[in-house]
Amino acid sequence: MRRLLKLLGWLTVGICACLVALLVVYGLSDRPGKIAIEHHVLNVIDGVREDGMTPDKVVGTLDQFADQTEVVKGDVVLAPEPDKDATAPYGEPADQRGLKHFVNKGYSVGYDDSLPSPRWSSYRVFPYKDVHLERPSTFKSDVRTTARVTTTEFVRSGYDRGHLSPNYAISVCYGEEAQKETFLLSNIVPQVHALNAGLWKDLEQRIVRRYVERYGTVWVQVGPVFTEPAAKKVGRIPVPDAFWMVVSEYEETTRGLRAIAYLIPHEETWRDRELTRYVVSIRKVETLTGLDFFPKLPKATQDRLESTPAPRAW
User: I need a surface site. Which of 4, 72, 86, 201 has the fewest CB within 10 A?
Assistant: First the structure.
């Protein structure tokens, strides 16, 4: 027993010495050096917090620490207070195509009847009670569209019917009726199963669980990237080449907006913990899609928010 206690004592001393040395090196490093150290430390933190065994209090402390690092925090851009009840904080994505705008109980959609497909979907998530609702068994054609896409167009196509605004997040935040509306085909795009049930689902869950825990209210805008004309189709529906997400949160204390964009290729990707590889600038998503995000913000604010990628996945 004494040997064990002695070993634990020396182990504790060793860990403390390493931490002190790390802090000294961090303090003496230039900005790129500090960012490199933060990346390594945050990789360790991500592994600890996501192993499913770490106590909630420890996870909360790690998140608070992570949020203070320059790598995670990124730029917080001064911005007026957003519309907290809207599905997009500073206006839905603007476009030049004349998309149809559908407002549902928990999310909104910009729909292009000429494709036919949604170009974007947006929703807001916030702290919620995790109440389990049965997943609806059927998808429905949206009578507000001219195209009236039907679920039979997906049958034996080799693609899942992939949600843009997700079933789970909408159900826990807005309830059963809102959940059912996520199964309207105006919110659905062809998506390979591995991505739909893998990396894409992981990112959706990360937002509704991790981001909401850390930031409170979070806005999400999501959509496909198409090659025009489409290289592949499911019935009349074009198959996306990639998918994007723009996630934003407003910090009350600094009265600033922070945002991050992800661009994920439409590939068979089950899992990838290195989400930073998919982080891009919002401006890149705008270039690929022809959309204009945060259209109600002044142009100078948009430029600062959108021109540079976040330094790391949140």
Answer: 4
**Which residue range is the domain that position 111 belongs to?**
77-306
Query: Per the structure, how many domains does the chain have?
Result: 2
Q: Looking at the structure, tell me whether residues 95 and 8 fall in a common domain.
A: no
With respect to residue 313, please indicate whether it lies within any of the assigned structural domains.
no
For residues 302 and 291, is the Cβ–Cβ distance under 8 A? no
Is there a single domain that holds both residue 81 and residue 43?
no
| pTM more than 0.90 | no
141 in Cβ contact with 152 (< 8 Å): no
Q: What is the DSSP letter of 89?
A: T
- CA nearest to 92, candidates 118, 116, 130: 118
Identify whether residues 156 and 268 lie together within a single domain.
Answer: yes
Do both 59 and 125 map to the same domain?
Answer: no
